[in-house]
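Continuing the series of single-chain predictions for the mutant panel. This is the parent chain; the variants come on the following pages.
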Amino acid sequence: MTEDLRARSASEVFDEHLRLSKENRFADDIERNVSPDCVVLERRGVFRGHAGVQELARWLSEELPGAHFTYTNRLVESRIAFLEWTADAEGAQVRDGADSFVIEDGWIVAQTIHYTVERVEPWSG
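Parent structure:
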């Protein structure tokens, strides 16, 4: 089974990463799609490996609890992928999410992440 996962195209890895992320299946996503040696650049610093990706996923879920994510642009060319996204959560939103990925041998080996969490007041109708 591992051999099959490593033979996937960048587009296949990217599609599965987005699907599992939207389903809040972060552990499955990390195991299947993120290289143990992955490097992620994010505004708070450089994060490495599965532990770094898990920490970033935890922070995102704390900043945007129960968020609904919308993928507004998805591009893949060769081993590079790009995602633009928005998110809406109770009391918070993101309008400028942008991630880039390097995908090799069926793994996400590098990623950059950018987003700004904006606090919003609940609508009182």
